[in-house]
């Protein structure tokens, strides 16, 4: 019998995301967004005070307060630059070891915070991403983190908070060739990413084992409804929708197949699968590994679903040619075609097929990057 709860070192096993991570024994790391925020904080502090804090401490969206050592610093008349080496922990991240720099310059009062792409950071050139065409590829959550830390530094040291932040990554353009950025229309380098600031390490074998342990913990605690979530945003959505406790939440990451196959052998009454629309569209086409390096969004499949939901041939062709899954969804939302619901239903049906008649009821929730529900299936 698996025991639940208790302090670390007591021999008891925790459930939920934290318990899964502890079970893997893998070391977490920091996102490029967290590194850019730390570099920005150090640079703006130096711009206002003349001194670089080293190490520099920031606050992440969930309240953690990591400290980062500076790898580079430079103070000139009107600007300051600080650099942080990204540590991805035990995750096989292509940006591990990259030097992330932020250069901060004063702007006139009332200008706000302006983001620029420096060398090694890409620029958005196609629609369908969470940033407008022409913008630096610094994603919304890192932008918010940097803006919040600029405001804190300004309040502490008497600045206006009106700054230009240029983010750059040494050798970023070369590193980006190993990512999907060029195909997505992000040209010139990497994206600055992260919704929590923390990189969760994914060793396939270790993480799949942690999923199995998570199911065991939930069953031992008497949970009859569990949720497989692709990340922290989908986890929040499921908690808001159903009020599930931590030990009923399975951090499945990209490993949808691992959740379904283990629950097939160790059933619970109900399974909710929640994740981003694009990831779950891959499950809808039968992919059980949702990682971007091992499966891709099938826009032809989405076009076919759109037709079944009332799209005309013009819209279906636009969906098939869309740059991203998000762009396809937005096209259908504008035309009142329920593509999100259709993907959720197809994903549910694929999940049921993998369960092979196991006594498990399944529903699927698709969300966008902000956590808004954009599609859902009924329970079946």
Short summary of the structure?
This protein is of the alpha/beta class and about 375 residues long.
Describe the structure.
- With 380 residues, the chain is an alpha/beta fold.
- Helix content is 38%, strand content 19%.
- The protein has 13 helices and 18 strands.
- Strands 4-5-6-10-7 form a five-stranded mixed β-sheet.
- It starts with 15 loop residues before the first helix and ends with a strand.
Low-pLDDT residue spans: 1-11
Which term fits the overall shape?
globular
Question: What's the arrangement of strands in the largest beta sheet?
Answer: 4-5-6-10-7
In helices, the fraction of residues equals: 25-40%
Cα-to-Cα separation, first versus last residue: 30 Å
Output mean pLDDT.
90
Structural class by secondary-structure content: alpha/beta
How much of the sequence is in beta strands?
15-25%
How is the main sheet built? 5 strands, mixed
Please count the beta strands (DSSP E, at least 2 residues each). Answer: 18
Oligomer kind: single chain
Rg (C-alpha, Å) = 22 Å
Structural key phrases:
alpha/beta; five-stranded mixed beta sheet; 19% strand; globular; disordered N terminus
């Amino acid at each position: 019998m698996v025991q639940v709860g208790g302090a670390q070192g007591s021999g008891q096993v925790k459930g939920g995301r934290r318990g899964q991570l502890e079970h893997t024994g893998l070391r977490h790391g920091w996102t490029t967004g967290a590194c850019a925020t730390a570099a920005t904080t150090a640079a703006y502090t130096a711009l206002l005070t003349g001194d670089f804090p080293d190490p520099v401490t920031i606050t992440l969206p969930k309240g953690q307060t990591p400290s980062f050592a500076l790898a580079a610093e430079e103070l000139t008349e009107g600007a300051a630059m600080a650099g942080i080496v990204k540590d991805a922990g035990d995750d096989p991240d292509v940006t591990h070891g990259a030097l992330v720099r932020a250069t901060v310059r004063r702007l006139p009062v009332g200008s706000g915070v302006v983001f620029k792409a420096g060398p090694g950071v890409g620029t958005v050139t196609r629609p369908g991403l969470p940033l407008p065409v022409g913008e630096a590829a610094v994603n919304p959550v890192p932008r918010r983190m940097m803006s919040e830390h600029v405001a804190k530094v300004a309040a502490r040291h008497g600045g206006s908070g009106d700054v230009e932040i240029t983010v750059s990554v040494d050798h970023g353009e070369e590193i980006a060739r190993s990512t999907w950025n060029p195909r997505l229309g992000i040209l010139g380098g990497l994206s600055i990413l992260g919704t929590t600031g923390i990189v969760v390490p994914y060793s396939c074998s270790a993480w799949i084992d942690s999923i199995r342990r998570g199911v065991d913990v939930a069953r031992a605690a008497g949970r009859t409804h569990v949720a497989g979530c692709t990340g922290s945003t989908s986890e929040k959505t499921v908690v808001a929708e159903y009020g599930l406790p931590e030990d009923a939440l399975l951090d499945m990451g990209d490993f949808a197949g691992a959740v379904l196959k283990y629950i097939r052998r160790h059933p619970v009454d109900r399974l909710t699968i929640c994740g981003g629309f694009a990831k779950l569209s891959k499950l809808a086409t039968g992919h059980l590994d949702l990682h971007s390096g091992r499966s891709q969004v099938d826009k032809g499949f989405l076009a076919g679903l759109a037709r079944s939901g009332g799209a005309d041939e013009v819209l279906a062709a636009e969906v098939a040619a869309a740059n991203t899954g998000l762009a396809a969804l937005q096209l259908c939302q504008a035309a009142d075609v329920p593509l999100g619901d259709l993907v959720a239903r197809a994903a549910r049906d694929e999940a049921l097929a993998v369960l092979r008649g196991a006594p498990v009821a399944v529903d699927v929730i698709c969300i966008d990057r902000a956590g808004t529900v954009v599609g859902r299936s009924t329970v079946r």
